[in-house]
Fold:
Amino acid sequence: MSNRRITAAIAGAWLLALAPATADAASTIDPTVPAQIAPLNSAPIRANFLAAYNDVNRILNMYAGATPPTNPFLFQLWGDTSTNPYTVRQFDSAQWVATGTLNPSTHAYIPGFGTIAANTVIAGPTSGSPANATARALVGADLPLPTTSSLGGVEAVNQVTHQWVNSINSSGVPQLSQPAYSDISGTLPPASCPTPGASSLGCVFSLASVSHNFLTSIGTSGAPTQAQPAFTDISGVASAAQLPNPTATTLGGIESYAAVTHQWINTISTSGVPSSSQPAAADLSDGTNGSGAVVLTTSPSLVTPSLGVASATSLNKVTITAPATGATLTIANGKTLTASNSLAFTGTDSTSFAFPGSSDTVVTLGATQTLTAKTLTSPTISGGTIDNTVVGGTTKAAGGFTALTATVSFTATNLVTNADLVNQSTTVNGQTCTLGSTCTVTAAAKSGR
Structure:
């Protein structure tokens, strides 16, 4: 081949790489050009290289597209992208036959199959090593195991007398058991009942209730008879559980009860249990007065008692001396009499004494006491001294009165002279006094007296 031919072939190949593929199925390569021993012409060479390039690309991508290729040939493949998943088709010289699907999302290819016989599946071998899939009938190993929420294969089970299938386990194995009476619905019809015998069970007629009557026998026809039992028909003695509970109007069994000191049974419950308590004063039948506990002879504690006419030698630790015939002690309402020392009062009957309005000390006749800020109204003083002044004296005293005011009525006979008075005259403090006669004088002691 000359250099010119080689150069043209390389150029044609380069053009093939740049040329787009078409959807035509038939090849457009023309083997007759260029003609043998014809002058070199690059145009037909380039055209054939481009046709070859398109043919190769069509084969590589299976003529992928949404429409089938034109002018298809036998056994040509077509990648149909008009569906999802994509459909792989092959031309049978008359039509495009689907041979499988390709899922571009899961990248799974599922082959398609033609028509197969009824009740057969395309599957691998029933056992042993892997092999090509064929059309065959299903076997038990092909079925999934059943669950409570999904279907699956179940094994056969032989009949067992009086037993029914009650469950199927997760391996598909049925389980048998004999039904119980609780598993049977409805009721047994009377016609199906056997009659009873002396040693065999059977059905019995109903029997209306008759007070105090009990069943005595059942005939072979199933008819019962009844009668009222006598005491001689009952053996043994009644147990505590057989006794009825007592009520307020009916008899019943009662439990035993141990004695408790000072207590008596006061109630019996409806369960037959006695209860006891110590009687209160209100429980006494011979009359009570007041409330609370019963008073006994030694050291009772009384709360607000009303004693009426009573005799006592002491009260609240206070010793009481009983008078010969009677005496009265009266304390006004709301008042308190308190004695801080032992005292004895004497006097004349029906006399009374008024004590000062405020707390003070009582002046007595025989004791020496000092009076402070006291006013004596018309006193009679016999002898003695008042602030060193002799009462009844004839001479002036050296008394030192600090504040003495006295209103005195006296007879001035050899008792007061003018020299003893402040004014030293017959007129004393504005009062005219005639010596030797009765005169009322109001005088104040001299300063310092």
